[in-house]
Structures are given as C-alpha cells and as structure tokens.
Amino acid sequence: MSVSTQSPAMSRLLLLSPVVLTLLALIAIPLGIMGYISLLPRNLYGGVDWQADWQLQSYVKLFFQEGFDGELELNWVYAQALLRSVAQAGGTTLLCFVFGFPVALWMTGLAPRQRSLMVLLITIPFWTNLLIRNYAWLIILREQGWIAQSINALLPQAGGITLLYNDFAVSVGLVYSFLPFMILPIYSTLEKLDWRLVEAAYDLGANRWKALRRVILPLSMPGVIAGALLVFVPSLGAFITPAILGGGKTLMIGNLIQQQFGTARNWPLGSSLSFLLLGILMLALVLYALYSRKTAKTIRRGAAA
Amino acid sequence: MEHRASVEVQCVSKRYTDDPDVAPALDEVSVNIAHNEFFTLLGPSGCGKTTLLRTIAGFEHVTSGEIRIGGQRVNDLPPFKRRVNTVFQSYALFPHMTVAENIAFGLEMQGLERKAIPARVKEMLALVQMEHLARRKPAELSGGQQQRVALARALAPRPDVLLLDEPLSALDLKLRKEMQVELKRVQQEAGITFIFVTHDQEEALTLSDRIAVMSSGKILQIGGPNDIYERPQHPFVAHFIGDINLLPGDLRRGHDNQSLFRPTGLNVDIPCHPHPRFGSAPVQLAFRPERSKLVDPSQPHHLRAVIEAVLYVGTATLYQCRLSNNAKVMLRESNEGLNGARTVGESVAVHLPPHACLLMEA
Q1: What is the β-pairing status of strands B283-287 and B316-323?
Q2: Which of A111, A235, B242, B292 could form an SS bridge with A89, CB 3.0 to 4.6 Å?
C-alpha cells in the first residue's frame, strides 16, 4: 500500500508520530501520573494510597491546615516559600540580564573566530556537574576562603562578614549557573542586529547610552525575553543551590518539593506543589505569549490599514 | 555668516591599513561646499565617495587633513555632536518605531522641548507628503515611502548639512525620477546644503549645482553639470559622464597657426582649439556621439568610416562605425526629419566641428 492512497490526515498523523510519541512519553504520561498522585491521599506508611477515591486534599493543604479543633486555618508557609522563590528567581533573572547583556554586546564586536571561542568558553562550565560547581562556590565563599578573609581584613569594623549560607550566596550560585542561558540568546539576537541602525541613531544625535537604550535594547528584546524565561524557569525550581549555598536555612519551593518526595514522603503534597509551580510558570509563559501576540497584531493591523 | 553651513574638506586622506602598497580610500581630497548648495559626489563603486561622506558624517576618522563644518573643525567630533544628518542607502529606519517616532527621534536627542515635537514631526511629514502614514511601522511601507521617511527623519533636527548616500538606488526607475524632483524641491524649501553621493551620472547632472567626479580616492574634476559634461578635463570624467569617443593622435600646427589634430594611422587633419597647456605631447581627441555629423563620404578632410551596427533608440539612432585605422566610434543622429535609412556596411564621413572637439592628455 502506497502512502498516496491514505487520507492526508492519516499520513500527517504518521509523519508526526515520532514527535507525538516523544511528547507523550516524556511529558504527558509523567504529568498524568503526577496529577493522579496529587489527587490521592498519602497512606500510613508514607506511600500513596492507590485504592482511595480522588480528592482535593493535597491542594487544600497548599493554603490551609487543620487546626486542633479540626477547622481549616490559613497556612502561608507554602505560599511564602513560593513567593520567596519567585522573588529569588526574579532577582536572579535581573542580575543575569545586568551581567549578561554587556557580555553579549561585547561579544558581537569580536572577530568571528574569537566569537565562536567565546561561545565555547561560556558553555564550558556546563561540562562540570552542577553539584560540583556549587561545592566550588562553597569553598570560594566560606569563612576561611580568600574573599571573606580579604573583606574582613580590609573592613575589620564590619565585624566579620559571612558570605555563605545566606540569600547572597544563593544568588551568586544561581546567577553563576544560569548566566549562559541569558548571554547566548541575547548574543544571537545582537549578532543579527543591523548596526547601521545604531549608526543612524548616532547620526541623529544619540550618544552611546541613548543609542543603547532607544535602539539596541528594544531590538534585542526577543533575545532578552528568551533569556529571561530560560533563567527564570529553572531558577524558580532550583533546589541544589539553595540547599548547598543557602545552607537549607530558607525554604524554597524547589527544596520543599524535593523534601515531600524525599524525607517527608508525602508524594501527593509534593505533586500538588509541583502543579502550583507549574501554574506560576505557565502564567509567565502566557504573559509572554500575549506580549508577542500583541506585537504581531499591531504589525498585522498596520499592514491591513 | 559667510561660513555658516559650508563644508570645507582640506587635503583629507583616509587609509585603512599602514601598508603603502594598498591605495588609500581617500587620497588628499580637497573640496569646498557652499551654503545651500546641492553638491554631488559622483563616481563608480569603490571610488571613495561614500568614504568621503562618512568622514563628513563622523563615522570614519580621517588619517590626515581637516574637515570643517560651518567654519568649525570637526575632525575629532563624534557623529552625534555634528550638526549633520544622513539619509542612508538602506534608509536605516528604526523598525520598532512608527514613522512619527522615527522622525521624532532626532528631535528628542536634540533636546527639543517635548511640546514642540509633534508640531515639527507634522511639519516634516507634510514636507514629504506622508501625513496619512504617520502611525505605520517602516516594515509596512513601500520603498519609496521609506525613502521619504528617511529624508524627513534626517531633516527634522534642521541640520546644517544633509548627507545622502545613494538614497535612490533601491528604487525603480519611475519612482527614482519622481524622487529626484522631490529631492530638489525639498532642498530648495529646506534651504540646507545637500551632499549627495551617487554612481548615476544622469541623476548627478539633473540634480546638482556642482559635481565632483571621483575615481580611486581622488577628485578628478569639480564643476557644474554643464562644465563636467561639455568640458571634461580628464579621460575618466569624459567616459564616466555620458558617452564619448576617444581617438589617440598628435597635435600639429597648420598654416595661419591653426591647430590640427591628426589621429594615429589616419591621413586627416581635424582643426581644433587646444588648451594652451598642451604642447606637442601625445594627446587624444574626445567627442560626444551627438556632436559629430555624418556627411556624404565624397567630402574631403573628414574621417572615413563604415557603419557596423545601427541601433534605433527612439529619439535618435546610434551608429557604431569603424574608421579606416580600425578604431571604433559611436555616433548619434537625431531622428528628426528624414536622415535615417543608413544601413550596415554603408560608407560615411564623420564631420567634427571644432567646438565638438575636446583634447585631453593621452
């Protein structure tokens, strides 16, 4: 039987089957299992009670807890962890942009050979395990480390600054880990930038700063947004860095989820927390989609006018 | 006020490398451009005309020499500190801004009062007849419309000098003709010095008050369109502007002190008015195809020729002829009246009146 005798819909489905199967196996099925678990109660031994009826208990637990009298009370612990994580991830994204954008801009000015070398150098840290990189920062930032030692030697009146096991250390670790995800997309948009536009800006009286703000930055927005998503999404769920460099003192949503699946053995709550996180990320993606659709629409509307 | 807005280029050279074997992009170029002048830099690609424009705009540093704008030395001023704006060949409109925002950009950078900007933008849009498209993005405009926006954007900050880098080269012929008329009108209305770069000799002749013809980083001749066309001083200029025939030969003096030109390999003396600087050095005779006349071959003292090709071009007919020394010349005869009907293979004589003959160094 030849392909041409099949209906177009059928052959399209066949052609798409590798993609569909991959998506099913790697996304739909795991998410389905997790969704299923989140609707089940935890059994007495810390497993999942597969026989129980579906219930929303683990979602209720995200925001409420049972008081001594059996009444539901508001419980902000998880929401706070989530907010803290969003703030941490947002800060990381911002810092990655602040450090990454100038690097990407500088790279576009290099000779083509040097540029590919720089891209290589930027990706090299990925060849090392994330855990090891975090432990490396542990050594750099610890009290006996040269940075802390020299700061405390230079500023004795500050009374012994500690760099480790706080939000600062977590930020350093996260920014260090995700900076390449910001640099590379920005670099790839800037590389395609028409530099004659920047010349035109100079010509019209813009100094370097104004040309950057009014022309280069707006035109590199697609790269900036892609980079922001690539940094924001994984830093929101990060748990290794807060655990190692934050000393596990502050609870991030990533650590919380890890705990539920690990030591706490509360899979339903871990699953519902994961869906909460997923919801926040979906929100970010929807906002991005709305933004890009709006820009596309203005162009279409203009073209039709 | 004499000096305001005039551009003086003094002995400017531009080298991209220190290698003395590489010819400089600009080789000791000097030119003075008067206030309100429509000045054209004309030459083939790679002749340095765009480089000269970019040094005036401030995008390139000069290796030596001096550039003054309005009497002020600008060698070390960055582009954003020069009261000079450019219309780029690619237009370089900001794709993320509307037409109005593009035009307002220069005004904002200039620090014009916020309230005054919309009025000036409107005025500029009116100047280029684009009021109805103020809110479009550049991607939604045709080439000709983008061209107008680029012009309005460059004119909005009221520069002393407007630089135009082959602005019409991306347009089709009909639109180009329209924009030529438009450019001339805008220049007269705005009262701004225009420095226009083009490789199109017809465009240069139509638009310019004066033209500088450039080749290999040098200015060969500066003059009005009429000057450049009628009295080219250099074979390159003669060739580049319009069509011209060149015949090598030598000068001699006939009786009653008449100068005579004898083409190499021919036994004919052509009377002409040589420039005093020519002695008896080898020279060449140049004449435009339309300034010669085809006459009856029986007449003496004329160049004998055989027609090799006949090209009908509407208003005129072009004859490609071979002289008896095997040199090829192109002759043009108006189609007025009935002098057509010359055919390939026909023998003719070429009459060159003295005013049609130009002599230049060989």
Answers
A1: unpaired
A2: A235
At the topology level, CATH places domain B7-236 in Rossmann fold (3.40.50)
Handedness of CA B135, B136, B137, B138 (dihedral sign): negative
Across chain B, mean pLDDT equals 86
CATH 2.40.50.140 at B243-361, yes or no: yes
**The CATH number of domain A76-265, selected from 1.10.3720.10, 1.20.910.10, 3.40.50.2300, 3.30.160.20:** 1.10.3720.10
Interface test with A, best of B94, B120, B124, B195 (most A CBs within 10 A): B94
Residue-wise pLDDT for B208-230, tens only, equals 999 999 999 999 999 999 988 88
Out of B106, B109, B137, closest to residue A299 by CB: B137
- Which residue is it, tokens 């770069």? B197
Interface residues from chain B to A (CB-CB < 8 Å): 57-59, 78-80, 84-86, 88, 90, 92-96, 105-106, 109-110, 135-137, 139-140, 153-154, 157
Distance (Å) from the alpha carbon of B243 to chain A's nearest alpha carbon: 36
Q: Is B92 within 8 Å of A219 when comparing Cβ atoms?
A: no
Give the residue extent of every domain in chain A: 76-265
| Residue A3 reports pLDDT greater than 80 | no
pTM for the model: 0.78
Cα Rg of chain A (Å, integer):
25
Check B80 against A215: CB less than 8 A apart. no
B118 touches A287 (CB < 8 A): no
The values of phi and psi at residue B244, to 5°, are -150, 150
Q: In chain B, which residue's Cα lies nearest the Cα of A218? A: B96
DSSP A153-169: HH-GGG-----SSSHHH
pLDDT tens, residue by residue, B61-82? 999 999 999 888 999 899 999 9
For chain B, the domains span: 7-236, 243-361
- Closest among A28, A10, A32, A31 to A20, alpha carbons compared: A28
Q: Token pair of A147, please?
A: 């940075």
Q: What is the pLDDT of residues B321-342, one digit of tens each?
A: 998 888 888 888 887 765 557 8
ipTM of model: 0.80
